[in-house]
Amino acid sequence: MRYVSTRGGATANFAEVLLGGPAPDGGLYLPETWPQFSRSEIESFAGLSYAEVAFRVMRPFIGDAFTDDEFRADVDGAYATFTHPEVVPLTELSSDKYLLELFHGPTLAFKDVAMQLLGRLFARALEKQGRRATVIVATSGDTGSAAIAALKGQPNVDVVVMHPKGRVSDVQRCQMTSVLDANVHNIALEGTFDDTQSIVKELFADQAFASRVSLTAVNSINFARIMAQCVYYFTAALALDPKLKRRAAFVVPTGNFGDVFAGEAAARMGLPMEVLVVATNSNDILARALETGSYNSGSAQATLSPSMDIQVASNFERALFEASERDGLWVSGAMKAFAQTRSLPIRADALAALRERYVSGAADDAETIAAIGEVHRAYHTIIDPHTAVGVAVAGKLPRMPGIPLIFLATAHPAKFPVPVMRATGISPQLPLHLKDLLTREERCTVLPNSTDAIREFVFQRTGAA
Fold first, then answer.
1. CB atoms closer than 10 angstroms to residue 147
2. How many Cα atoms are found within 13 Å in the side-chain-facing hemisphere of 312?
3. In 3D, which of 38, 35, 78 has the Cα closest to residue 58?
4. Which residue, 189, 199, 123, is CA-closest to 159?
5. Residue 288 has pLDDT above 80, yes or no
6. Fewest Cβ atoms nearer than 10 Å: which of 145, 157, 248, 402?
7. Is 111 an active-site residue?
């Protein structure tokens, strides 16, 4: 299996993609060709454990980077950390509405599904190569804690996590800053999530710096995240109907476009589905892009669904690459122009292709609170505000008679107790192993919105100064 850059200027194998971050030309890696599964092959996954389906779906992406035994051991180890026997259970709300619960991992968010595997693959790959790496993470709330949970204590990795100061929930913050392992370094950046992403991109573009600290990334720009997340689309479709006769619409709360693009990956691999619903909060750049054909970045607004407070969705580049029939030259020019002007007109054929696969909508905070309350009253189920954005957006779309809706429930409601309490009058409780989270000792450094400041911090903390 070889990988190509969305900007047409690089190829790599899986180990290079896993450890390398963005491609040298600034693009994002995708497989040269998508693995294909026939309908009968997918049906044969029904009844298997989640770990076994994950092994079978992801194995083609790995190539010769790991043996079957090595990869299976890491897959099994990753999903043994989840508290539900089905790992990501599909629960029925009504005959045509379902929740795909992605929050049963160590940090109570969907990021664990990929990160628990990614951490193990990282450690194994670094050991094979006899090297050390610095992982830098820009997080809007959940990726950072998932990365820390996966990589803390690893002898060959430093983890540097940046979150926007004051723009994550208390639970999200403490899940990061209360981890005191020597290889974990937390930064509260005086800026937005988009600022943290911009700094990460600048650090990777500084080749001397990146080489000096062996820089790599575990954000959803890393294709291994997409690879791992596409698995639950398969298991959800099979849980809905083992014969795949009912084709679902997947409703995905979306910020950086990684989770919903994983759905496109599953479809390109052969999984039947009806449509992917891109559900955004007031930071609606993606909804606007799909509606108007113009991808225009504004200023990120703070909302009750902070993990989606994003105005530059990195993984949208992958969708543009596929929608333009892999025209790396166009994508390269378009993304470079966007970096300058913060505006990207989507060419007509690509926009048409995107609209065939995706529908979209946005919901504000009032609609989010209303959706949490409505789900609780109608189904006696409590959802978090990100999941509620999906519910609210789906409620505003034209009806799709006979099409079941699968809502991706991306986080445990206890991570966001304030909006849940407002909507339901109930304060959701953290699982027992996190009961004392908000009183634990924290360690974090506040830094200005400056690439130079972050660069110096990384030098000092990794011993590369």
1. 31
2. 21
3. 35
4. 123
5. yes
6. 402
7. yes
